[in-house]
Amino acid sequence: MKEWFEFGWNFERYLSLLQIITGWIILAYLVFHVIYVNRLAHGVTINDSFLMPLLVIFGVVLTFHISNGIRILLIEYGYLTPKGHINENWLRYKKHRNYEMIMMIILAISLIISFWVIYK
């Protein structure tokens, strides 16, 4: 556990930490969503003008979580790692780097669309 707090993290470790954080954010959203729907079902009116930016941010969080989860699955099944990668640095593998770039482009596009939805 102490190696998590050492300096010199690589990009993979940051993505792993963000995957955990976004998972907790999604769990918190689900809890608040159930509470919100329950209050609406019981006739409590809620001013939801502040919810739109939160929903857009949640959409970006969800997009990251899904695309990073797919990346993790592709790594686990060996599609983004070279064959016999035990002795080589698979983080520099071309397929893995390409997927990371695609993932970042998807996140940037979702962020742009999110801001467009908020401020249109």
Structural commentary:
- This protein has one domain: 3 helical TM bundles of succinate and fumarate reductases (Up-down Bundle).
- 4% of the residues are buried.
- Helix 1 packs across helix 2 (51-76) and helix 2 (51-76) runs antiparallel to helix 3.
- The chain is built from 3 helices and no strands.
- With 120 residues, the protein is an all-alpha fold.
- The protein starts with 10 loop residues before the first helix and ends with a helix.
Summarize the topology.
Layout: H1 11-41, H2 51-76, H3 94-119
Helix pairs in contact: 1-2, 2-3
Summarize, please.
By secondary structure, the chain is mainly alpha-helical.
Percentage of residues assigned to helices: 55-70%
Structural class: mainly alpha
How many β-strand runs? 0
Order of helices and strands: HHH
**Which architecture per CATH?**
Up-down Bundle
Mean pLDDT: 79
Low-confidence segments, given as residue ranges, are none
Protein name: Succinate dehydrogenase
Organism: Stygiolobus azoricus
Keywords: Heme, Iron, Membrane, Metal-binding, Transmembrane, Transmembrane helix
Transmembrane segments: 14-36, 56-80, 101-119
